[in-house]
Amino acid sequence: MTETHAASDEEKPANDLRARVRTVLQRRKLTDSVSAEQAAASWEQDRFVARARALFYARMMFLTLGLLILAVPTWSGYFGLNGPVAFAGYFAMLLYSVANFLVIDHPKAGRWVTYLTLCLDLIIMVVLIAKPQVGGGLQSPLLATQLLFTTLFAILYPKPLSILPPLLALPVTTRLDLLLNRSVTAIELLTLLWYSALNFIIVYVVVYLNEREAAAHREVVELQGDLKELAVVEERNRMAREIHDGLGASLSSMIIQSEYILGLAKDGPLRDEILELKASAEESIDELRRNLRMMREDFELTQGLEDYAKTFRDRTQMDIRFERSGTPKKLSPDAQLALFRILQEGLSNAAKHAQAKVVTVKLDFGEARVHLTVRDDGKGFDPKKTPRGHYGLLNMRERAMKLGGEIIVDSAPGAGAMVSFSLPCNPS
């Protein structure tokens, strides 16, 4: 009971960490195998949603001020906002603001709807600036609002073309002044130049800070990935040392002891049993060395597969033909292990179940994928009728699915069997 509680206490921090990670992944709509690019995209989406929500709250404040303007006859008369048309326009703004808020979280629709409604806000602002006959245009008290729109566009859409609408608001306002027969004075010209300069300063500062923030975040995400990979490599190397010093030494001792006993044994059947024991220990230590090389990432895949095929041929006396083509590419340890295990399973099935005489192994490195094919001339089987307790094909499919690969098993009774496995050269 005490040991059970101790084990439970040891697992509690790991379980809490898993639960926290799972919660964050679910909130960000990500999977366990999230890449650095997906994490960066999720962060950018969260940043946009937060800023779009801030825009919605700013709109509510402006709409409150708009309601106050409509309620005061002097102010509404100054802007020419009289009658039911003004109230209809006000409620239309309120409706599209709420509709925008409801779709903010959508990755594509949220961005498009926010941009379109922001452009509508800008058009309404330009109309309110230009409409008053006295004190309108470049003399309007609302002209400073244009700077706010430039800031909002730059924060939400820090791209040159996206920021163009608020920058065009000033020349459009000037053109409307001329069309309404309002002459542009020297002071108004200075105002135009001053606001234009402020616009470009705002755009430069906001876009620059956005790019710096995004670059810093990408760097942090990449650093976290590198640290995670380094931790995995260090743990693999530590486990490789422990296995080599522990299990490797035990197997080596078993081989030495079996050789000593073999020299003492005189009985024929006993010597055969000792030889079989020694061969099993030697095979186990070869398998151990292969796994250690894979863990240390210094395993040469092509040569390793060919060596295993030769060793299996010598042990079983089967005719195993190994062919390779293409330029070998560096694969991840998991991908190398998957290819090696599938070769093991294919050769083992050919020897144990298929009673094959000839097995052909082909390893082909393509531009984007690596292909491994194991074909035998055995008695074959029906892939849809796998005997209970045989998990070889299931394990193959699970390995392929985990690495984004594809496996095809083609066989029929009396027609041999073919196992074809392919996976991306850089599986995610």
UniProtKB/TrEMBL annotation:
Pfam families: HATPase_c, HisKA_3
EC annotation from Swiss-Prot or TrEMBL: 2.7.13.3
InterPro entries, sorted: HATPase_C_sf, HATPase_dom, His_kinase_dom, Sensor_HK_TwoCompSys, Sig_transdc_His_kin_sub3_dim/P
GO MF: ATP binding; phosphorelay sensor kinase activity; protein dimerization activity
Segments crossing the lipid bilayer: 56-75, 87-105, 112-130, 192-209
Gene3D superfamilies to which the protein is assigned, alphabetical: 1.20.5.1930, Histidine kinase-like ATPase, C-terminal domain
UniProt-recorded name of the protein: histidine kinase
Organism classification: Bacteria, Pseudomonadati, Myxococcota, Myxococcia, Myxococcales
